[in-house]
Specification:
The chain folds into two domains: 43 residues, no CATH class; 45 residues, no CATH class. 47% of the residues lie in helices and 10% in strands. It starts with a strand and ends with a helix. By secondary structure, the chain is mainly α. A hairpin with a 7-residue loop joins strand 1 and strand 2.
């Protein structure tokens, strides 16, 4: 799967999801609720602070966990040290 971002209007991002037919069919097998969350995370139109700040609902775009970076889908999934630090601690302390 390939995701392309386009900036046609300054300050706005348009996402194009390019996938082959097989992958597209597999995505459509997800439940509607799961599919909604996946698409929100890909497009950035979700209940994370960066988007809420952009549309005037949140007072600041900073991450609720670490407060260092803007709270975007990419930050939450890949970068937030507070979130990932907790996962590492749980994994190493859980019984085998």
């Amino acid at each position: 799967m390939q995701i392309k971002l386009f900036w046609r209007i300054p300050g706005h991002v348009e996402t194009s999801l390019c996938a082959n037919n097989t992958y597209a069919r597999e995505i459509l097998l997800y439940e509607r609720r799961t599919l909604k969350i996946i698409l929100e995370m890909i497009t950035g139109h979700c209940r994370l602070r960066k988007h809420l700040h952009t549309i005037g609902i949140a007072s600041e775009p900073d991450c609720r966990k670490c407060g260092i970076e803007e709270e975007t889908a990419h930050h939450i999934v890949c970068e937030c040290k507070k979130i990932h630090q907790g996962k590492i601690v749980r994994e190493t302390t859980s019984p085998t």
